[in-house]
Amino acid sequence: MHKFILADPDKCIGCRSCSLACSFEHDEEFSLSLSRISPLWMKDIGRFVPMTCQQCEEPLCMEVCPRGAISVDSTTGAKVVDEDLCIGCRACFLVCPFGIPVIHRDKGFMIKCDLCGGSPQCVEVCPQKALSIVEADDASLKKRREAAQKLMALMEKIS
């Protein structure tokens, strides 16, 4: 079971409700700096793109951690950080292709999405339904279908 949060930039309005719900869930504080998800403004495409851990199949963050502080949650499949083991060395940040893990501003350990134990609060509160929790195989099928629809529409225009 490989689940992750799928973001639809076409729906994201950049309200940051996801970020605030995340920080409150984990730290009981509404703070963008404590969030494990961040909608980034992409000026060149004119859209917000919510960025969070992609729960990689082969997580480089887990491999590189010198303390073994990152493990796979057996229930959710999320890659989670053990705050008691993490020394905040940033090795996971350096190897993450998305630059996702960040240092907790008050406690000194790395933080990243843990899927909220299987019920991600960011997904729950998104007013535009721009976020969803999906199985990796389902996401792949959805992307292939979208690509096929675009290809068919383009072929109809050509012919």
Return the domain count.
1
Mean pLDDT: 91
Integer-rounded radius of gyration:
17 Å
Span between N and C termini? 42 Å
- The CATH architecture name reads 2-Layer Sandwich
Spatial arrangement of strands, main beta sheet: 1-8
Helix content: 25-40%
In the CATH scheme, the class would be Alpha Beta
Question: How much of the polypeptide forms β-strand, as a percent range?
Answer: 15-25%
Which residues sit in consecutive blocks of at least 5 with pLDDT less than 50? none
Largest sheet: 2 strands, antiparallel
> Helical stretch count?
5
The CATH topology turns out to be: Alpha-Beta Plaits
Q: What class would the helix/strand composition place it in?
A: alpha+beta
Any idea what the shape is?
A: globular
SSE ordering: EHEEHEEHEEHEH
Number of strands: 8
